[in-house]
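*** Protein under study ***
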Amino acid sequence: MSYFAHSPKNGIPPQTYTAHINAVIKRLKEYMPIVAKYGRIDGALLQSLAEASAYRHDLGKLEKENQRVLSGEKSARKLPYHHQDAGVAHYLSDEHFCLIAAVIISAHHKGLPNFRAEGEREERIFRDHDDEVVEKTNMLLPELNRIHDNLVTKGPPVDDLMPKGDVPVFLRLLLSCLVDADHTNTAVNYGNYPQNETTISLRPAARLESLDSYVTKLSDGTDNRDALRREMYNACRNSNIEESISSCDSPVGTGKTTAVMAHLLNQAQKRGLRRIFVVLPFTSIIQQSVRVYRKALVLPGENPEEIVAELHHRADFESEDVRHLSSLWRAPIIVTTAVTFFETLSSKSPSTLRRLHELPGSAVFVDEAHAALPVKLLPIAWHWMNIFADEWSCYWVMASGSLCRFWQIEEIAQSRTAKEIPEIIGVDLRSRLSVFEQKRITYKSDLQPKCIVDFMSWISTIPGPRLIILNTVQTAAVLADAYSNRFGRERTEHLSTALTPKDREDTLERVRNRLKNEDDSDWSLFATSCAEAGLDLSFRNGFRELGALVSLLQAAGRVNRKNKYFDAKMWTFVLAQDNMLKSNPGLQDAAIILRGYFEKSIDIDPKLSTDSMHKEIRLHGVSRVFSKLLTHEENWDFENIEDQFNVIESDTCIAIVDQDFCVRIRNGNADWKELQRNSVQIARYKLKELNIPMIMPDIYQWNLLYNNFLGYMAGIVKLKKFEGEVLII
């Protein structure tokens, strides 16, 4: 008799149980030794438990009613019997007891649980919550094991051992290992993933040589600023850091993109690392950085997209039909957002954790580190960074043009001793680099709330080109629409995550070209925070809606970057709220602190960054949130951590704006890279409120107006105008 693990679909026959289990184990044996070697404490245990879990993870699929569905004899949306309970029962039995294997099998579909809640279930711990399923499993287990042993070669013996290092991080990594092997084989079986995937090596020495050549060609070093950039590059490249975490505090326009990458490649060569992550706060910086890295790091004969992966937003899917669209961390160099990166570290969900095992043995560059996370999330993120540094051979660089040394703040350091993080570049060079920042701009404020009409009249009198940074996507779109209607589309640009990555890239290219044309000056770019950090743009004057000090400092980095103007200004302003202009509640505390600096006539300076963050922590008892998250982690309450660790407060989903691409998605003719470039992230509640249709699990088709000026906000602004919520002139 034949037994099956996956049912027939789209003309593909059912996959046998033997083929699936063997393929999962084979895949684990291929990559687990690589992952395990970077585990300084628990690497070998991770490998043995991953293989043990794989052997029995689908044991319950052998139940006869499940087999009727899996063979294709009977059609059903899901298996009638919860198949993971059998593997859990096997590893909780006296004869085969292995608690960690039981936990991982229990979690391989539903995710890691809250351990305190599980402990209260006593003898039913980690078992299915349906009593009938548990009773049926107990009765069938001997027969299921007998069938399994006849189908699959017996695995190695398993010891019931607990990790010596950090347990929550270990469990997330272990689940990642099993789930990735499981999901990848399923995708291969259905023709959605290549049968034989080539692993591309980082080759740090060769890429460093290529980067050296690229940087040498950028300038001849005769200009003082260019000479300092070259010195900055060499200092970073050759810095001899022995610790596992370092920092790079370097002013705007000093070439951190290439200099820190040179440092990481050099460290990767010395430490034997396998991958480099560049973690950025905003999607707009991703495109700029990726363009540079693909020019500088790709070697002859290589495909740039395979060497430098570009991940704009999370694409994680539990459904078997769309798992192949999940974004993975396979490339040797990965450029991604702080949202995607840190929410992966915090996750309990199989589809998200699937990529986590690619992190051990990596160098991680957290650029604009001050803006990577909300303040309340920094303590637990700092905890994870230290665990991956100490136990899983990761090397971290915290960098920014206005670096806030958050690790020196007691509430963030928590139980970890506040440590001195070594600087990549010396005090003398940092001082000389900072000379160019002096008097580059003047910080000004007008904190009297302005309506749309008054605001547009005001900014139009200030010499352009002008950069206007707003606190919400909706405010940026509404003002861009209003300004365009009043002054003309040719005098208005708009940049936010309402645009797809492809359209953002086109907008940025147009903005760059306009900034190069000195005869084209009377225009304004309305943008969200995605334009305030890291972009190589230089405007005549800037405006930033009242928010956080560090955001103002970063936005100022996009104004008069080369000291071309003697009177460039960076304005802080406040808008009058109405039905269309809403405040961002997440910035309330930070805005109070920045307002206080202006009202007390305190000069705006990067040196205020750490003080500003410290004040924000203590305002309204934010430290209680810190302790709560860390307590959940200490109690292994994974569900609570995932629920409360939200870099972006709203629950967002992917919406596709290209109708032809929707058809390709339905037909299975697209991959995750195309999905990233042709979609936007929109709050789930907004999609439901607007009745946007879901075409596949967690993938929506945007059916309102979309254009390359306002993005999906074009449809919302048009709808609000129709409903009479606001008068746009």
Q: What stands out?
A: Residues 48 and 305 are 34 Å apart (CA to CA). The domain at 4-189 is CATH 1.10.3210 (Hypothetical protein af1432). Residues 167-189 form the longest helix (23 residues).
